[in-house]
Amino acid sequence: MEKKYNSEQKSFVRALYLHIPFCARKCHFCSFAIAVNQTHRVREYLDALGREADARPVADILGSVYVGGGTPSCLSEEEAVLLWERTVGKFSVGGGAEVTWEFNPESVTLPKARLLRGLGVTRASLGIQSLNAERLLYLDRAHRREDAITAFEILRTAGFSNVSVDVMYGFPGQRSEELARDMREVLALHPDHLSVYQLTIEERSLLFARGQRGYLEEDPSLDDAVVETARTAGLLQYEISNFSRPGYESRHNINYWEGGEYLGLGMAAHSHVRGRRSWNAETLFSYLEAVRDRGTAEAGGEELPPAEKMVEAFLFGLRMNRGVSLEELRSRFGTELSGEKIEAIESFVEMGFLEEAGDRIRTTVRGRRVLDEISARLV
Description:
Elements lengths: L14 E6 L1 E2 L11 E2 L5 H14 L6 E8 L7 H10 L6 E11 L6 H10 L3 E7 L3 H7 L5 H13 L5 E7 L6 H12 L5 E6 L1 E2 L4 H4 L4 E2 L4 H13 L3 E4 L2 E3 L6 H7 L5 E3 L4 E4 L2 E5 L3 H11 L3 E5 L3 H14 L4 E2 H8 L5 H12 L3 E4 L2 E4 L1 H5 L1 H8 L1
Helix pairs in contact: 1-2, 1-10, 2-3, 6-8, 11-12
């Protein structure tokens, strides 16, 4: 029998995240919540996602859906259909919704890409990382340069008019000339959106276990090369790590950066619903066990006081080029930043790391390079 929910039981969110943790291997830099060599449990996992979706109804029409991982593209065509039926198909998705599916180059096929496009996926995110063979080997990626180029072409052939690519930089010994060359080759594919991440060695990664830590290269000329190469290709920066053609900004991620609400389903997924943040069990075994025994995988949650929410929203707002309005935050959270934090913001303005633009405060080019330090001071 179909479950009936009253309005108090339903969540009013407009963004849905689905985590597909399965991977054939663990890349050397990866510190994400994944499940390696566990594809024999995909069906069991999809069943659990379906049960979790039943327990977390949404009253509003979704404006964005994001299927991330892990490696969502490792699902077979039949498994992709099952995922859709058991999760997305249970929600109301708006006609103009942004629906993103992450792909790894080695698992992109034309039949699968066409199937996903037919299901309603409107945006493809392709994890290229680099077209440099030496850098791909360092990361221990499963694909080669040729695989990435072919995968991009397949996505276009399948009908994806909105394709984003991921690129990584900051490799040991990397210089701006090499980075610019790598980016130019990636951008020659003419993606609509570009996410560029500085290689950061974090706990739980194989590189961390080998003694490497944090940023490996902090040459400011690398950041300059990223921005200039993207701009030359017609992709404008709208967030510290993201660039796009006009109108192709990631709506799903902007919702995160603006402090919007979202529902996350799957292993280690996070949610922000009615002002409360929660997170799911972090391992495949604990996630499946929790859903089987309790019907939910929630492992913890918290609701921040308004003052902390305001600081968090301010810091996320600094990530975006348009910055953030303190007046809007005051109206939204009904509180003020402390005098100490206001003084810190004013000092960053005086030092040239932040600037005022009308009623908004935003980071300068210099400020983007030290945003972590700015955030640490304001937390």
